[in-house]
Amino acid sequence: MIQLLPHLNELLVYDNSKSVKKDASPIPECLIKITEGKIEGGNSSLLRKDFPDWAQPIAMEAINTFVG
């Protein structure tokens, strides 16, 4: 995915790993949304402290790719 970033028109990355009550479905949270090279919410939206570990490399590469 990281290698594809410069070539994508849109990227949506969701996280559905939050704990939920038994028999409930997790509600996916959109962590990263990039459309036409623009990061929705700006860079700060990708630098949150509560970002899952698995999403951090994607977020950092998105900042490097689309912000410079």
**Rg of Cα set:** 13 Å
Average pLDDT metric: 87
Q: Report the biggest beta sheet as strand number plus sense, adding barrel if it closes.
A: 3 strands, antiparallel
| Domains, number | 1
Distance between the termini: 18 Å
Low-confidence region ranges: none
* Bulk shape: elongated
Question: How do the helices and strands line up, and which of them pair or pack?
Answer:
Layout (H helix, E strand, L loop, with lengths): L9 E6 L13 E7 L2 E2 L16 H11 L2
Antiparallel strand pairs: 1-2, 2-3
Structure notes:
The protein is 16% helix and 22% strand. It contains 1 helix and 3 strands. It has a 3-stranded antiparallel sheet, covered by helices on one side. Strand 2 (29-35) and strand 3 form a beta hairpin. The radius of gyration is 13 Å and the shape is elongated. The two termini are 18 Å apart.
Brief descriptors of the model:
22% strand, single chain, 3 strands, 1 helix, elongated, 68 residues, alpha+beta
